[in-house]
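User: Hey, my collaborator sent me this sequence without any context and asked if I could get a structure. I don't really work with proteins. Can you help?
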Amino acid sequence: MSIEKLTLIGERINPGFTTSKLLLESKDLKGIRELAVAQVRKGVHYLTINVGTAATDDPDFLVDVIRSVQGTVDVPLSFDYPNKEVQQICLDTYDPAKANGCKAIVNSISELRLEMLDLVGKQPFRVVLMASERLENGKRIPNTTEAEVYATAKRLVERVLQREDSMSLDDILIDVSIGPLAADTEGLTRRAIESIRLIGSDPDLKGIHMMVGLSNLSIMLPKTALDGSPLKVRLESAFLTMAMPLGLDTILGTPGRDYQILDEDNFVYRGFREAVECSGFDILVRTQQLYRED
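Assistant: No problem. I've predicted the 3D structure and written it out in structure-token form, which is a compact way to encode the shape of the chain:
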């Protein structure tokens, strides 16, 4: 990856990947260390730590993973758990001195998990705020428009800053969320881009960071486009090409992928732009034209 000012959080220490799941289920610390080293060599700035259900079933293993990884590499860690007690264990175990003094990332807090704000002020950390859903009348409501995502993000930022004045906008990452383009009949990709535009243009949020789980975008799509180029990584690069000028600066992604800022006339980028502008099933039709002959 060679995009300036793009922070990459390596996603592979996570049971969502088949090989990683095997390592975690067998509690193979040597293999986990090797996976951490491989990601760092490919240029990650942070490493995700997610050991799955073992975080609650066997918290000692979670502690062992954190200490083992920190004893092997010196990049900071991002703890991917929606559980306050698990995050407390992670923060208690994490040693900033072994990460060049950098804070860990807590991923993530949403309006449905506001109790996790109790962690603020106990140990310094950075935080991911999940803006794709909101709490309304005691119920979880998915945000379906960029205005709703923006409003939720702004409320969450205010709640965090009110709890601890030592936490700055630079410590906050807003996840606007993206899903598979191959199934996007509701314009979720366009919503994400427009949400980034709204948040990035708010002077009160200047200095904040925005992120997505970029690998989600190309799930279920073939590897190769009609022009012979790598479809998945080009689509992910197309998203970056559109979103980074608007304020996106962080991704949860796969180390070693050839992310690029694409030229306007790039075959995949042109198709991606046109797909994002479509509605309903036309989004899928335009996406299919990138890899399927009519």
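In plain terms: The CA atoms of residues 109 and 272 lie 31 Å apart. You can pass these tokens on to your collaborator as they are.
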